[in-house]
Design goal:
453 residues; mainly alpha; Fumarase C, Chain B, domain 1; Fumarase C, Chain A, domain 2; Ribonucleotide Reductase Protein R1, domain 1; two-stranded antiparallel ribbon; two-stranded parallel sheet; 6 strands; elongated
Length: 453
């Protein structure tokens, strides 16, 4: 029986869901057990042949998930069930299975292995998104669009500038995830309260060897568990990434409104249905999905922060909640990235409509450009500001073209002729360094991508 939309197949990519699949999790726990046995043999604590035999059996080919669940139903302990199921396959070598370890040496280290897989997938999609944003920023770097503040027409900018801003935000998120991974992708092999008493005199070396074998780092110090500030940082960061994508998706939803109609999600006109009753609907459904799932991901932040608090050397309050928070956060952010990449790749842009929208206010959005020129010509800045305020009000209330209002006003004509007014009202002439900024950010981003291993 499936209930949650991740399980039903509605949300999530296959590759990320496979990372957190029960069978893969079991295999990572077995990998840790195999590495532990190998490390014991390396320091001379157990015979090499026994370590090799344990490693040969530490596979879901032999240790079946079904058997582990049968044992757990009986003894009600996850890790002990894995240990017993592995021991059943190891004959006399079973005496050395799980030697000196405690449950969360296995679980926390296995989770680090799962998160290493997950972060690899997330990073791949972030870089793919970055490349899409670079292309869009470059393509539309000179495409003029009205900038909006408070939902109102402000000044002209370029569509490429929007993409460049998103591109750099995504770059910061990539950097954040790389930094977080250094702190997150660590395991532990320290025993019941972290003292390594059960591992004996070679405890420190055994921990180093296990993690080296598994390809991850190890905690500098820990109790019975890895401290959950590491996992809380990850979920908080994934929520930030989701919010960045929510921001992009929200902008696309706004631009797709019929009264704006400047950019649109792709729509499969031959088959896609926008509404069960309104045939005309072309909803920004994917962007809305991104926004909706971002809410769920942000909702995982609080339980992740709550998990930082632990009674003494450990308790079980983290265990149940992070079985939801960690896989769900990774599956959702991976899927949201997947959706965002596809939306942006296929985004339909109406440049003619952007030009029409620039003219909605009859030129009033260029009032600052006129003010700037008046100040350069010698008018006091505060006087110019008040004058332009009065003239924009006149244009709006009387429904008159702003150029005509300006040309008729003697105070303006004392400083500017009709040609100068016309040139100042051309949005193309008031983009500042927008195009140059986009070019610089594209080059900077390309250099960052090229510099990654």
């Amino acid at each position: 029986m499936t209930i949650l939309p991740i399980d039903t197949g509605r949300y999530g990519t296959r590759e990320m869901k496979l990372v957190f699949d029960e069978k893969n999790k079991l295999q990572r726990m077995l990998d840790v057990e195999a590495a532990l046995a190998w490390a014991h043999a390396e320091v001379g604590e157990i015979p090499r042949k026994d370590a090799d035999y344990i490693a040969s059996k530490a596979s879901t080919r032999y240790v079946k998930l079904k058997r582990v669940k049968e044992i757990e139903q009986e003894i009600r302990h996850e890790t002990a069930s894995v240990v017993r199921a592995l021991s059943e396959q190891c004959s006399s070598s079973s005496a050395y299975v799980h030697l000196g370890a405690t449950s969360y040496d296995i679980i926390d280290t296995a989770n680090a292995l799962l998160l290493k897989e997950a972060i690899t997938l997330i990073c791949e999609k972030q870089v793919a998104l970055q490349k899409v944003l670079i292309k869009k920023a470059d393509r539309y770097k000179k495409t003029i669009i009205i900038g909006r503040t408070h939902g109102q027409h402000a000044l002209p900018t370029t569509l490429g500038f929007k993409f460049a801003v998103w591109m750099r935000e995504n770059a910061r998120n990539i950097e954040r995830l790389e930094q977080c991974a250094e702190r997150l992708l660590v395991g532990k092999m320290t025993g019941a309260v972290g003292t390594q008493a059960g591992l004996g005199q070679h405890g420190t070396r055994i921990q180093e060897l296990v993690m080296k074998r598994l390809g991850i780092g190890y905690a500098d110090i820990s109790t019975q568990i890895l401290q959950r500030d590491r996992h809380a940082e990850l979920v908080c960061l994934l929520a930030i990434i989701a919010s960045s994508l929510d921001n992009i998706a929200s902008e696309i939803r706004e631009l797709q409104r019929p009264e704006i109609a400047e950019a649109f999600e792709a729509f499969e006109y031959k088959k896609q249905v926008g509404s069960s009753s309104m045939s005309q609907k072309r909803n920004p459904e994917i962007s809305e999905r991104i926004c909706g799932l971002a809410k769920i991901l942000r909702g995982l932040v609080v339980p992740s922060l709550e998990n930082v608090t632990t009674w003494h050397e450990r308790d079980l309050t983290q265990s149940s909640s992070e079985r939801f928070t960690i896989p769900e956060a990774c599956v959702l952010i991976d899927y949201i990235l997947f959706l965002a990449i596809n939306v942006l790749k296929s985004l339909r842009v109406d440049e003619k409509q952007m030009q029409r929208n620039l003219m909605i206010t009859q030129g009033r959005t260029m009032a600052e450009a006129i003010m700037t020129i008046l100040v350069k010509k010698g008018m006091n800045r505060q006087v110019a500001l008040e004058l332009l305020r009065q003239l924009t009000v006149e244009s709006e209330l009387k429904g008159r073209n702003f150029e005509k209002v300006l040309a008729k006003d003697g105070r303006v004509r004392d400083f500017l002729n009709e040609r100068e007014i016309r040139e100042a009202l051309n949005p193309q002439n008031y983009l500042g360094t927008a195009v140059e900024q986009v070019k610089l950010m594209i080059e900077k981003t390309k250099e960052e991508i090229a510099g990654r291993p």
